[in-house]
Amino acid sequence: MNTKFRAALLLLLPISVLALRAAQKETPMPHHATGAFEVKLTPLDPAFKSDDNSIARYSIDKQFHGALEATSKGEMLSGAGSVKGSGGYVAIERVTGTLDGRTGTFLLQHNGTMQNGNYHLNVIVIPDSATAQLTGLQGTMEIIIKDGKHSYDLSYSFADSK
């Protein structure tokens, strides 16, 4: 092997390893927490009333089980479409408990729509909302509703603390 080529290769190898390590730190591998939850929605007085009552407001009270052992409290606004089975909702909830052995709180933000009985949900951990041992938490939550029972799949990671 050519001496100059070998010297260049020996110089580039450590740089490549450092670049790979930096890239791995920037994209942490996600963890998954799964389990069941119960939810209680209680109607609240809306900020305004309309003749068709197409907008409703609720308090949220949840109990999570599994890798996320927690309770949550929050509020939800929903709007019904003119066709049965269509509508949307937004919600914010504060989750307090333990996630895979780490305790603290974090906020979840919901955005959901339903059309003809098919729904699309987007639930995220609000950036920089986590406290205590959960500080740096980032992720998304999938809510699964099957046979009237609720479960979750939280895909998450922790941002590097600097």
Structure notes:
The chain is mainly beta. The protein has one helix spanning 3-26; strands spanning 31-44, 55-64, 68-80, 87-99, 102-115, 118-125, 137-146, 149-158. Strands 1-2-3-4-5-6-7-8 form an eight-stranded antiparallel beta barrel.
Keywords:
single chain; 162 residues; mainly beta; 8-stranded antiparallel barrel; 1 helix; globular
**Residue share in helix:** 10-25%
Sketch the topology as an H/E string, one letter per element. Answer: HEEEEEEEE
- Mean pLDDT rating: 85
Shape: globular
Radius of gyration over all CA atoms, rounded: 22 Å
List low-pLDDT spans: 5-21
Enumerate how many helices there are, as a single number.
Answer: 1
Count of extended strands: 8
SSE layout:
Elements: H1 3-26, E1 31-44, E2 55-64, E3 68-80, E4 87-99, E5 102-115, E6 118-125, E7 137-146, E8 149-158
Antiparallel strand pairs: 1-2, 1-8, 2-3, 3-4, 4-5, 5-6, 6-7, 7-8
The gist of it:
With 162 residues, the chain is mainly beta.
